[in-house]
Amino acid sequence: MENNKTKGLTLTEKIIKNHIVDGEMIKGTEIGLRIDQTLTQDATGTMAYLEFEAMGVPRVKTERSVAYIDHNTLQSGFENADDHRFIGSVAKKHGIYFSRPGNGICHQVHLERFGIPGKTLIGSDSHTPTGGGIGMIAIGAGGLDVAVAMGGGAYYITMPKIVKVELTGKLNPWVAAKDVILEVLRRLSVKGGVGKVIEYCGEGVKSLSVPERATITNMGAELGATTSIFPSDEITKKFLKAQKREEVWVELSADPDAEYDEELTINLSELAPLAACPHSPDNIKSVEEIGPMKIDQVCIGSCTNSSLLDMMKVAHILKGKTVHPDVSLSIAPGSKQVLNMLAENGALAIMIDAGARILESACGPCIGMGQSPNSKGISLRTFNRNFEGRSGTKDGQIYLVSPEIAAASALTGVLTDPRTLGEMPDFKLPEEFIINDNMIALPVDEKDMDSVEILRGPNIKPFPETAPLQETIDCGCSLKVGDNITTDHIMPAGAKILPLRSNIPAISNYCFTVCDEKFPERAKSMGQSIIVGGVNYGQGSSREHAALAPLYLGVKAVLVKSFARIHRANLINAGILPLTFVSEADYENIAEGDNLVIEGVREAVINGVTELTVVNKTNGKSIPVLCELTGRTKDIMLAGGLLDYTRESLK
């Protein structure tokens, strides 16, 4: 008798199966997913909402869309405050919940108040996978993708490979969830997760709280992974019950006979305190290996490590002690809820008494918004990225560590192994969190939409002009860069530049200036140009400005050895042709300033031809390149970008 039993499904496959609206679950093929929830933050939100308005959809069609203000909270000029007013008015009119400045970091608040196991979430922030800590398929995306999802459109990804990370054992005292994800990064690298979902399972999962799981899924973004996910179990239920949201809980896990593309085992009992050394999240060494290095600054917070659990550990370490005189310590609780509870239980007073500088519940130093270290300063941070210059200090030496390491080191003035602190208390989450959603503004009823005025400040400029794909691209190479170029290289953050996120003409003047200060001026003078790069081009943030600024500056194509997932999608959304070398050796056959020609581009894309030829007219070389576009991305590129494509499809 024939055995018709189908193989078991992974947790990822189960959620995808329930949300797939286009394509089939075949690895490497494109699939379209129905999106239940979206989130934006203010650095990417203004552009996302301008794009949403341009589509002409009157009301969001998701189950829940939330706009957060957490990035550009430093109001040193009118720009940020204007952006906040604009986002608030759009949210009120179009059916979006609005998390006001001071309510907290988007991923922390979403986990607390809105995330639901088994649902899909995309957010215009690369650390949206934090939601995987409660069993969501939560994916970082460009703002335009989020706008399309808010309008009821599907979100398209390549059906990912699924990596099983089996957790065994239990973390030893003073070893943290941060050390788990740093160990994964040590093993897989910043490009080891590209095209993959990291799915955690095993007995060790039961020993991790939801905030600890969220730390691990949050930094999965640094692997280049599509997302990371934990099962939804009794621990998830307990967390949601404490948030008075128990009714949304469902139990979710992989089938026992699920098949994975790759498997990795981590014995939690064997882990030691780790640090990511400058200038990459995968440059991992043990604290013991680095030794008692003198430090200048400690920053505790960010969407990776700002939960109540993290803060209580920090308060315990600081209690009755004083921050070392050579160290500046800043602490940013992740949400108003966390800050409120620290104030009520006395932990906030302990931090202040020890000499910590308490920052508002926002991203702050993580995106270069204040707290830049001194020149050549060594800064320990509980954040997720330590790219060169991201802190705001070009020669700053940034180490990524757990809150336990950070707090212990702030007291000693040197990098300190927290296992020297003695016995660790049994830190537990409260049975009930303080629930006060008074900083979340609700939208008006649909019938009252017309009464809401959209408030636009003078810094808010429209989406850059786009045009259908040309038949021939004939222009110069305006820039040649190396491997692991991040979106911080392409479009820097920081207090000076972030307020210009609503103004593409103005922000484009900073495009690639980390690599070459003359690039914006040169690109403008060339009119049209091509950028050439190395491996893992565009890793890091989901910021679509890293595609929109080059679009404004006339970049028609980007030719690299390989792309990071979100950035490649953002280039396509902006109508910029993403190309890869057939042979990486051909990277050497192009220099900045060379005149490059690609003939028959439009016809090739129409006909599904994936190999094109770049002719370098300067040196006479012919270079084969790949232009791998599927049916839908092909149509987006031909239209001149996702906004044009969506407008046409909505007619």
From the spread of the alpha carbons, the general shape counts as globular
Strand order, biggest sheet? 21-22-23-24-27-26-25
Largest sheet: 7 strands, mixed, barrel
* Strand-residue proportion: 15-25%
Number of strands: 27
Question: Distance N terminus to C terminus?
Answer: 53 Å
Mean pLDDT: 95
Low-pLDDT segments, ≥5 res: none
Describe this structure in words.
The longest helix is centred in the N-terminal third of the chain and has 17 residues, at 78-94. The chain has 651 residues and is an alpha/beta fold. It contains 21 helices and 27 strands. It starts with 10 loop residues before the first helix and ends with a helix. Helix 6 (177-188) packs parallel to helix 7 (210-218). It has a seven-stranded mixed barrel with strand order 21-22-23-24-27-26-25. The chain has a six-stranded mixed β-sheet with strand order 7-6-3-4-5-20, with helices on one face. The model has no long low-confidence stretch (mean pLDDT 95).
